[in-house]
Amino acid sequence: MKRVFHGSFTAQEPIPADAIARAVDVMQSGRLHRYNTVPGETAETALLELEFRDYIGARYCLAVASGGYAMVTALRAAGLRHDAPVLTNAFTLSPVPGAIAGAGGRPVFVESTDDLVIDLDDLAQKAAETGARFLLLSHMRGHIADMDALMAVCRAHAVAVIEDCAHTMGAAWNGTKSGRHGLAACYSTQTYKHMNSGEGGFLVSDDAELMARATILSGSYMLYGRHPAGPPAETYRDIRLDTPNCSGRMDNLRAAILRPQLARLDANCVRWNERYAAVAEELRNVPGIRLPQRPAGEQFVASSIQFLVPDFDARAVRDFLARCLERNVEIKWFGAPEPFAFTSRYESWRYAGAQRLPKTDRVLDQLCDMRLPLTFSLEDCRLIGSIIRESALETRAAIASGSLREPPAMEVS
Ligand SMILES: *Cc1c(COP(=O)(O)O)cnc(C)c1O
After folding, report:
1. Most exposed among 31, 33, 196, 252, judged by the fewest C-beta atoms under 10 Å?
2. What secondary structure letter does DSSP report for 404?
3. How many Å lie between the centroid of ligand 1 and the Cα of residue 179?
């Protein structure tokens, strides 16, 4: 009898009871807007900004409506010009090129390696070819490039780095928190990320003028003085009049449920990594399955796991995914020709113009991906890992005996 998994890959943990209690307090006060305070009160949103600033170790922090909004705002506040090229990873999620387009820029995709990080040779080449002034660096699925080498390439080409830390909140490179290498960094508190307020995000930077522009852009009106985690008032003297208001604030209700979660973030990062280790242990040394190499300097937070199936062609991958799915293990595949659910490939962002990335294509064709929600027990993770291993071995046997299944029409749903 084959064992079947019975959990859900999309079930998050409940919001902690103290966070719910705080949210109820905010709702009872009626003061959900961050600038609706009584004398002497500091809004929940401003308190959250102070706490997140201190957690990350940045000079300034702004809480906003989403991670995508943080990225658009960072690019605009950093001075991106209309129609200017912006470098970004080809292996990323659609809000990243979307933020570049939203800020008026043109995404230029950079190859990814089979360890799922940006390819530094291609980065140097595309920086030189395009003259791009910005890299929107996506630490996609929590994989962190060699940040010392990356920053050296970017310095050499005068490229400013804005980090997309949607999957690296709580992670670090050689002891430096993810988001502390570039000019600015963006985080998401959307339900599937490392803290959950439904929607939400942060922008952090040490650059006072950038953050003053970002604060006005976010819709601070002339109330920027209510941002204790923002730059000093004099920074705003001209910026407050020269910068448009493009509303995208965070509200006190979300801030109230995030503050208690921030206090638990590091403990949760440990729990994610325990789950990753439990699945990875089952996949190690399985013929045909390759886990990306993670250098010692990468202090990752594995809220998901990725692996490559380099020996399988598209038909074999479908056979393998179907065997996993029969046992309720839902694996996302980046090689599917049609974009599906959250998974998409750079070709499906046609507004960016046709771009060819053969190295990334090869990686995506082999790339499998799975969330590791904290609702999974370690036992669940071992079971999932063993189902993946057994399915991969069955597919190998089917290839050898010429008995691969005919593909079901799975990508046309
Ligand atoms: C989720 C995500 C974002 C955007 O965050 P939102 O808060 O949903 O706008 C950006 N980058 C990556 C890699 C993401 O996964």
Report:
1. 33
2. P
3. 14
